[in-house]
Amino acid sequence: MSAITRDEVAHLARLSRLALSEDELDHYATQLDDIIGAVARVSEVATDDIPPSSHALPLTNVYRPDEVRPSLTPQEALAAAPAVEDDRFRVPRILGEEA
């Protein structure tokens, strides 16, 4: 028995505002039915003795530690800017909001 019908796919397509052909409805109904079946099989796996995890292998942080390093001063950073205002880069307004 199918978990999802062609009519349900058509309904989902209408809700998503997708124009699907008759062949696409049949094709997606079959694919979605296969996907739902695969999810159902995964749900049947006995996991009572398996602790929850976010990854199959233990991971360690591979990032370097944060260190203070010399960097540009605000004046050096702004020196090549095409426009500066109040010690900041001046860029065109894009949202139209009042300042």
UniProtKB/TrEMBL annotation:
Q: Which UniProt keywords apply?
A: ATP-binding, Ligase, Nucleotide-binding, Protein biosynthesis
Does ATP-binding appear among the keywords? yes
Which Gene3D superfamilies does its entry note? Glu-tRNAGln amidotransferase C subunit, N-terminal domain
Tell me the superkingdom of the source: Bacteria
Identify which top EC class this enzyme belongs to.
ligase
Under InterPro entries, the record lists:
Asp/Glu-ADT_sf_sub_c, GatC
Which SUPFAM superfamilies does the record associate with it?
A: Glu-tRNAGln amidotransferase C subunit
Annotated catalysed reactions: L-aspartyl-tRNA(Asn) + L-glutamine + ATP + H2O = L-asparaginyl-tRNA(Asn) + L-glutamate + ADP + phosphate + 2 H(+); L-glutamyl-tRNA(Gln) + L-glutamine + ATP + H2O = L-glutaminyl-tRNA(Gln) + L-glutamate + ADP + phosphate + H(+)
Enumerate the Pfam families for this protein. Answer: GatC
Q: What is its EC number?
A: 6.3.5.-
One GO biological process term is: translation
Molecular-function GO term, any one: glutaminyl-tRNA synthase (glutamine-hydrolyzing) activity
Transmembrane ranges? Answer: none
Family, as annotated: Belongs to the GatC family.
Oligomeric state and interaction partners are given as: Heterotrimer of A, B and C subunits.
Role played: Allows the formation of correctly charged Asn-tRNA(Asn) or Gln-tRNA(Gln) through the transamidation of misacylated Asp-tRNA(Asn) or Glu-tRNA(Gln) in organisms which lack either or both of asparaginyl-tRNA or glutaminyl-tRNA synthetases. The reaction takes place in the presence of glutamine and ATP through an activated phospho-Asp-tRNA(Asn) or phospho-Glu-tRNA(Gln).
UniProt cross-references to HAMAP family, sorted A to Z: GatC
**Protein name (Swiss-Prot/TrEMBL):** Aspartyl/glutamyl-tRNA(Asn/Gln) amidotransferase subunit C
For this protein's source organism, the top of the classification is: Bacteria, Bacillati, Actinomycetota, Actinomycetes, Streptosporangiales
